[in-house]
Every structure is written in structure tokens, then in C-alpha cells.
Amino acid sequence: MNKRKLLKKLLGGSKNIRFGDLVALVEAFGFQLERVKGSHHIFEHPDVAVIVNLQSRKGKAIPYQVKQFLEIIEQQNLQLGDEE
């Protein structure tokens, strides 16, 4: 899915988001997968002190973690990277 469309969908409150799509969006904002411990995927950003913790539930993103991610990008004023 196009990352800008996905971001718009998330901002619109959609709770039906595939985990893989969310991971791609998190990475498009400059976060990198640092480690996986059990079901926890931990992402770090070189310019942000806060980590993003994501889990998959039956292939879908967990809604409260989506909300936390959106709050982080808003608080840190992060911009979506260029798409190719």
C-alpha cells in the first residue's frame, strides 16, 4: 500500500491495518528495526530518543501501538521519507 495513503488511513482512525504495512510505514519515517524479542519488534530512530514497539496480532497491527506511533511522529515532528 502507498505509504501516504496508509498514513491518511491511520490518521482517519482505521483499526484494520496489516502489520507488514505498519512496519513499512515506520521504516519510511526513518526508524530501523533494532531487535526482535519474542513478538516485540523494537524500532529506533537515530534522532529520536523514544523507541517504537510493535507486535503482530494475527497479522494485524495492535491499535494502541498504532496510536503511540502516531503520537511519536507528531511530537517529534517527523516527516515521511521519499517514496520510490
What's the quick description here?
The protein is α+β, with helices and mostly antiparallel strands and 84 residues long. The protein has helices at residues 3-11, 19-28, 63-75; strands at residues 32-37, 40-45, 48-54, 56-57, 60-61. The chain is globular and about 30 Å long.
Write up what this structure looks like.
There is one protein chain. This protein is 38% helix and 27% strand. It has 84 residues and is an alpha+beta fold. It has a single domain (3-75), classed as 2-Layer Sandwich (Metal Transport, Frataxin, Chain A). The longest helix is centred in the last third of the chain and has 13 residues, at 63-75. The model has no long low-confidence stretch (mean pLDDT 93).
List the SSEs and their pairings.
Elements: H1 3-11, H2 19-28, E1 32-37, E2 40-45, E3 48-54, E4 56-57, E5 60-61, H3 63-75
Antiparallel strand pairs: 1-2, 2-3, 4-5
